[in-house]
Design brief:
With 309 residues, the protein is of the alpha/beta class. Helices cover 37% and strands 20% of the residues. It binds alpha-D-ribofuranose and calcium ion (CA).
C-alpha cells in the first residue's frame, strides 16, 4: 500500500478526491490535513470530517492547519463551492473529533518517522510550505508531491494569469516548487478535460448508495459556476485527478518542465510560469500533466466510490 497524506480545502472536488482515496485499497491514508482555501479553515476541517464519516472512516485522523496564507490575505471561493464549502447535499455536524495537533506538526512528525510518504495536495500549499520552513530536514524525506494547481495554455481561473490554489498562497507555492521535491502537477490544462457531464453525474446517483447520492448532489451544485463561465457540459473535477494519478498513472501524459511561481507582479501574482518549450536553462523541477483519458478517469471514480457505502 502506498502511504499518503491528503492536504485539502474541501470543496466538493476535494471531497470526491478523498472518497476516491478511501475507496482504494492500494492507498493508506495516514491522515488528512486541512487548510484555508475554498472556505475558511473552520469549514474545511469540518467538511473533511463529514466526508470521512460519509465514507465510514471516522478512524482517519483529521488535522487543522493554516488559517491564512503565508503573506497575503485569505481569498476564498464560496462563489464556486457555496457558503458551507460542500453545498448540494444535506450536511451534518461531524461526530469524529478534530485532532489536537496542528497539521504542520503532524506533517513534520509523520515525515520524520515514516518512510516513503506521498503528499497529495488539493488546496493552497500553505501547510506544506510551513512544514518545510519549520523542519527543512523533512524535504528530502518526502517521496513525492502530487498537487492540483496552476496552468499554462489554459490560463487562470481566478485571475487571467493564476489558478486558485496557487493564487491564494503564491509564496507557499514558490517554497514548494523550489524545494527540489519530486513534483507532479495536475494543472487546469488537464483538469478541464475531466468534465463531470450529466451522464457522468448520473452514474454516481445510479450507484444507489449514500456516497453515490451525496456525490451526485455535490456535483449538481459544483457544476453551475464553471458551466456558466466556460460554457462547459459540466464542472471540471480538479482534485480527484491527484489521487487517480497514484492509482492509474497510465491514463495521464505530460512533460518534465521548469515551473516558477510569480510573486512580484500584482498583475500576474500566482502565475505558474511553465517553460513548456525549454527555452530557459532553468532546472526541470516538475512533471506537468496535460492529458487524461477522461472516460477511464470517471470509470475509476464510479468503481471506487461504488465500493463505499
Ligand atoms: O482551481 C481549482 C482548485 O481550487 C481546486 O483544488 C478546488 O478545490 C479549489 O481549491
Ligand atoms: Ca481543492
Amino acid at each position: 500500500m502506498r502511504k499518503i497524506i491528503i492536504d485539502t480545502d474541501p470543496g466538493q472536488d476535494d471531497a470526491v478526491a478523498i472518497l476516491l482515496a478511501l475507496g482504494s485499497p492500494e492507498l493508506e491514508v495516514l491522515g488528512i490535513t486541512c487548510v484555508a482555501g475554498n472556505v475558511p479553515l473552520s469549514l474545511t476541517s469540518r467538511n473533511a470530517r463529514i466526508i470521512c464519516e460519509l465514507a465510514g472512516r471516522p478512524d482517519v485522523p483529521v488535522y487543522a492547519g493554516a488559517e491564512r496564507p503565508l503573506v497575503r490575505k485569505l481569498v476564498t471561493a464560496e462563489y464556486v463551492h457555496g457558503k458551507t464549502g460542500l453545498n448540494g447535499p444535506e450536511l451534518w455536524e461531524p461526530q469524529m473529533p478534530l485532532q489536537a495537533a496542528h497539521a504542520v506538526d503532524f506533517l513534520i512528525d509523520t515525515l520524520r518517522s515514516t518512510d516513503d510518504v506521498t503528499l497529495c495536495v488539493l488546496g493552497p500549499l500553505t501547510n506544506i510550505a510551513l512544514a518545510m520552513i519549520k523542519a527543512p530536514d523533512i524535504v528530502e524525506r518526502i517521496a513525492q508531491i502530487v498537487l492540483m494547481g496552476g496552468g499554462c495554455f489554459e490560463g487562470g481561473n481566478t485571475t487571467p494569469a493564476a489558478e486558485f490554489n496557487i493564487y491564494v498562497d503564491p509564496h507557499a507555492a514558490r517554497t514548494v516548487f523550489e524545494s527540489g521535491v519530486d513534483l507532479v502537477v495536475m494543472p487546469l490544462d488537464v483538469t478541464h478535460k475531466a468534465i463531470a457531464t450529466r451522464p457522468r453525474v448520473q452514474a454516481f446517483a445510479d450507484l444507489g448508495s449514500k456516497v453515490g447520492k451525496f456525490t451526485s448532489e455535490m456535483l449538481d451544485f459544483f457544476e453551475r459556476f464553471d458551466m456558466e463561465k466556460y460554457g462547459s457540459q459540466g464542472g471540471p473535477l480538479h482534485d480527484p485527478n491527484v489521487i487517480a494519478y497514484l492509482l492509474t498513472p497510465e491514463i495521464y501524459a505530460g512533460r518534465r518542465v521548469n515551473i516558477e511561481i510569480e510573486i512580484a507582479s500584482e498583475l500576474t501574482m500566482g502565475m505558474t510560469v511553465v517553460d513548456w518549450w525549454g527555452v530557459s536553462s532553468r532546472a526541470k523541477n516538475a512533471l506537468f500533466i496535460r492529458e487524461v483519458d477522461d472516460d477511464a478517469f470517471f470509470a475509476l471514480l464510479v468503481e471506487r466510490l461504488g465500493r463505499l457505502g
